[in-house]
Design goal:
By secondary structure, the chain is α+β, with helices and mostly antiparallel strands. It is built from two helices and five strands. It has one domain: Trna Endonuclease, Chain: A, domain 1, CATH 3.40.1350. Helices cover 29% and strands 33% of the residues. It has a five-stranded mixed β-sheet, sandwiched between helices.
Length: 120
């Protein structure tokens, strides 16, 4: 299985996990010239932007630690763009969560990081 197929498999697992825990997924793999957000959905009335990280070992660190400052900035800017082109979502509170899958165990880090971009 190549890297893209592996990523898609674990994003599918994350979506199933989120949906079974009350999240309504509205978009997967939202892409623009700035970057990508893995999953976008609603959880308890909040518009949530999810980053999914998978590690099969801790050789390269913990999956949750794989979201660095640059990635946070990209996700923040892409979330701005998503809301700009989908105005109906502009007035919802937002949150940035990380779904970390480490050795087949799923960890959901709610409010994993604060907004790190510049709004449009």
């Amino acid at each position: 299985m190549n890297k893209r197929q592996t990523g898609a498999r674990y994003e599918d697992i994350a979506v199933s996990f989120l949906e079974s825990n009350g999240t309504r997924v509205i978009k997967r793999n939202f892409r623009c010239r700035i970057g990508e957000i893995d999953i976008i959905g609603f959880h308890e009335g909040v518009l949530v932007f999810f980053e999914v990280k998978y590690r099969n070992s801790e050789k390269y660190g913990n999956a949750a630690e794989a979201v660095g400052e640059k990635k946070k900035q990209v996700i923040s800017k892409v979330s701005d763009y998503f809301r700009c082109i989908n105005q109906r979502y502009m007035n919802y509170p937002i949150r940035y969560d990380v779904i970390a899958i480490q050795n087949e165990e799923i960890f959901w880090y709610k409010n994993a990081f604060e907004y790190a971009g510049n709004s449009f």
